[in-house]
Amino acid sequence: MILINEDTKIIPGHGKLSNQEEYKSFLKMLETLRTNIQKAIDEGKTEDEIKADTSLTKTYDDLGYGTAFINSERIRLTFYKSLKGA
Fold first, then answer.
1. What angle do CA 48, 51, 56 make, to 5 degrees?
2. Which residue, of 21, 35, 54, 73, has the greatest Cβ tally within 10 A?
3. Contacts of 11 (CB under 8 A, 6+ apart)
4. Rounded mean pLDDT of 43-62?
5. Inter-residue contact 53 to 76 (CB < 8 Å)
6. What is the pTM assigned to this prediction?
Protein backbone atom coordinates (compact mmCIF):
# COMPACT_ATOMS: atom_id res chain seq x y z
CA MET A 1 0.00 0.00 0.00
CA ILE A 2 1.45 3.35 -1.05
CA LEU A 3 0.42 6.22 1.18
CA ILE A 4 2.28 9.02 -0.60
CA ASN A 5 3.51 9.51 -4.14
CA GLU A 6 5.29 12.18 -6.17
CA ASP A 7 2.08 14.25 -6.31
CA THR A 8 1.53 14.26 -2.54
CA LYS A 9 1.96 17.56 -0.70
CA ILE A 10 3.02 17.15 2.93
CA ILE A 11 1.90 19.89 5.29
CA PRO A 12 4.27 19.86 8.28
CA GLY A 13 3.50 21.27 11.70
CA HIS A 14 5.97 24.04 10.91
CA GLY A 15 8.05 25.03 7.92
CA LYS A 16 7.25 24.97 4.24
CA LEU A 17 5.26 22.43 2.24
CA SER A 18 7.11 19.22 1.60
CA ASN A 19 6.91 16.31 -0.80
CA GLN A 20 7.77 12.63 -1.21
CA GLU A 21 11.43 13.27 -2.09
CA GLU A 22 11.97 15.42 1.00
CA TYR A 23 10.13 12.86 3.13
CA LYS A 24 12.46 10.11 1.91
CA SER A 25 15.47 12.29 2.72
CA PHE A 26 14.11 13.03 6.21
CA LEU A 27 13.40 9.33 6.83
CA LYS A 28 16.94 8.41 5.73
CA MET A 29 18.33 11.00 8.15
CA LEU A 30 16.32 9.53 11.04
CA GLU A 31 17.40 5.99 10.16
CA THR A 32 21.04 7.05 9.94
CA LEU A 33 20.91 8.83 13.29
CA ARG A 34 19.22 5.84 14.90
CA THR A 35 21.92 3.53 13.53
CA ASN A 36 24.75 5.83 14.65
CA ILE A 37 23.38 6.28 18.14
CA GLN A 38 22.48 2.61 18.59
CA LYS A 39 26.06 1.71 17.64
CA ALA A 40 27.38 4.14 20.27
CA ILE A 41 25.05 2.62 22.88
CA ASP A 42 26.19 -0.88 21.91
CA GLU A 43 29.78 0.29 22.38
CA GLY A 44 28.91 1.23 25.96
CA LYS A 45 28.80 5.01 25.60
CA THR A 46 26.94 6.83 28.34
CA GLU A 47 24.11 9.34 27.92
CA ASP A 48 26.51 12.23 28.54
CA GLU A 49 29.04 10.87 26.04
CA ILE A 50 26.41 10.48 23.33
CA LYS A 51 24.91 13.89 24.08
CA ALA A 52 28.35 15.46 23.59
CA ASP A 53 29.50 13.34 20.61
CA THR A 54 29.10 15.63 17.60
CA SER A 55 30.44 12.93 15.26
CA LEU A 56 27.08 11.13 15.56
CA THR A 57 25.23 13.95 13.79
CA LYS A 58 28.11 15.54 11.84
CA THR A 59 26.77 14.75 8.36
CA TYR A 60 23.55 16.60 9.10
CA ASP A 61 25.19 19.31 11.20
CA ASP A 62 27.35 20.14 8.18
CA LEU A 63 24.12 20.64 6.20
CA GLY A 64 22.79 23.04 8.83
CA TYR A 65 20.09 20.71 10.18
CA GLY A 66 21.03 21.06 13.85
CA THR A 67 20.51 24.79 14.21
CA ALA A 68 16.80 25.03 15.04
CA PHE A 69 14.70 24.19 18.11
CA ILE A 70 15.68 20.53 17.87
CA ASN A 71 19.40 21.05 17.81
CA SER A 72 22.00 18.34 17.38
CA GLU A 73 22.56 17.78 21.09
CA ARG A 74 18.81 17.49 21.68
CA ILE A 75 18.32 14.97 18.84
CA ARG A 76 21.21 12.83 20.09
CA LEU A 77 19.72 12.85 23.58
CA THR A 78 16.21 12.11 22.28
CA PHE A 79 17.42 9.12 20.29
CA TYR A 80 19.50 7.89 23.22
CA LYS A 81 16.55 7.99 25.60
CA SER A 82 14.25 6.36 23.09
CA LEU A 83 16.68 3.55 22.28
CA LYS A 84 17.54 2.95 25.93
CA GLY A 85 13.87 2.91 26.90
CA ALA A 86 14.37 5.75 29.39
1. 130
2. 73
3. 17, 18
4. 95
5. yes
6. 0.86
